[in-house]
Structures are given as structure tokens and as C-alpha cells.
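Title: Prediction job returns without error message
Component: structure pipeline
Severity: low
Priority: P3
Assignee: unassigned

Description:
Job completed but the reporter wants confirmation the result is attached to the right record. Sequence as submitted:
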Amino acid sequence: MKVFVSTHPFSSTSPLPMQLVKDNGIELSVNEHGRKNTSEELALDIKDAEVLVAGTEKITEDVFKNAPHLKLISRVGIGLDGIDFDLCKKYGVRVAYTPDAPTMAVAELCVGMILDVARKITDTNINIKNDIWHRYMGTLLYGKTIGILGMGRIGKSLIHLLSTFNMKFKVYDIEPDLAFGRLYNVEFISKEELLTSSDIVSINVPLNVKTKDYIALPELELMQNHAILINSARGGIVNEKDLYFALKNGLITSAAIDVFEIEPYKGNLKELDNCLLTCHMGASTIDSRTDMEVQAIEEVIRYKNELPLKNEVYNNA
């Protein structure tokens, strides 16, 4: 069975994923571009693969056309916005992913970004290295209200991690887990109420047609001017031009953004001192990366052995 791995790098954090490939007689070829594939490159590279172990690249119809034997996409990670399920249906391709592996890493990055922005840690580090000794007056997390848009795996983990800060949790979720909410004294409210009443807003929803520009100027105008916005979910959920306007004009005090509509990011948020930017690194821990790759290959092995997939998202059968 031939497998193409588009995600890069592969098996760099641990030899275990590659060892699983060898132990199970899988014929593997990998992305050799040294970076994320473009859709055009993927369409050329995939050729006669039966399985694609995918990263975050967009999988276009040209990819499906150039892979007539493709039967399974095993996604390394949790986001599925790069996969068109109508095309999967048209070409008879199943889809699996690894939703549990990156959860805690992304939640921990959220906490780190919140603390960094609240206490100006990065700004102070830069100042000291430029011989500027300046103590910023930050803000406590203790007793503050955090609004969480989307209480799935990552949203729940974020609540768990922040519970030790004695924060108040407000959540908007289309299918709220009421039992979990009771455990952490979560208040479930509307999106609009959350935006108007939260000191910090964390975005933890997937990108889809309903969440494109989910936070744009009308939403930013609802937020308090001392509020902080965190996006570690997906680029495109926050309208970047509107966020620039809001930060530039004091509609909100600051933001921390890990994900962008076009990556690598080259936009004008880079000009702003009140916007912390990181490079889509939510799942970038040795532990999480290894777990994602191992779980993606384990799905390939189950498919090869005609066993049920553990985390199947779509099956055309």
C-alpha cells in the first residue's frame, strides 16, 4: 500500500511514526519541499498514493484528480478546513483525524498568550535587550471574566487550566456540555453577551462557512476597550483588517494571534505593539507532534488491515 505524507516535517520529533511505517510494510513517500505544500505541489506529488497523511494544506480537486487510487485522508491534527467533504464524497475518499493529540498543547499556548499579553512579558524582554528598563502595569487574571467561543476539547481544557486563577467563565457554544459547565461554574450566554461582558475573549471554534469572519468590526465594537482577544483556532475566523482597525483605534486593548488567513503572515498587524503574533504553533510541542503523527499512522494501519478507524470523520460507504 502506497502512502504519501504531505505534512512537514515528519517523524522529526520521534522515530516512532517512521518505525510504525516500517513495521507494517507501508510504502511511504514524503513531502520533500522543506515546508508546507501548496495545493499545486500536492497535486503533483500525490500520484498513485492510496492514502494521504495530510497537514493543513488545502486539498483541491486537482489533488483528487491526480490521485485516482486515493481512498483515505488521515489528517495530522484537528482542523478539517482544508478538506472539502463534497469532493471526498465525489471521489469516494474516507477521512480520519487526530483530535485528542494537540488539545492540551493548544490550550497551554492559549494560557501562555493570555499571560504574556496581560503582563507584557515579551514587550519587557525586548525592552531590556534594547537597554530600556520599564515596568509595565499589567492586569491580573485573578477574578477576571474570560469568554470562550466554542467549548469543545480545547475550550474545556482551557477552562480546566485557568480554573486555578479563580476566573469567571462565560461560554457561547451551539451544543453546550451542561454537565462540564456545572463542574466549573460556567455561565452559558449568547455570543453578543459574551463579547460585551468579557475581559478576555478566546476563540476556540473550527473554521467553516459559518465561522468565516466570525469576529469582525461589529463584534469588535461590542467588546470592552480594555479587553484582550486570543485566536489560536484558525485564520479567517477573525477579520484581520478589522482587527487592525480595532487595535489601532483603541476599540480593544490588545490581541494575541497564532493563526492567519494566509501563512506565513505578512500583514499589517506586525506594525502594532499591542498585538502578539506567533506562527501557528499551537500544537508545536514534541509530545503533541509525536502523538499526532503516531495516531495518523495508526489510522493508516487500521485501514490497511481492514479494521474500523478510531477517529473517522467521513465515510462515503
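Comment from assignee: result matches the submitted record. The chain has two domains: 2-101+285-314, 103-277.
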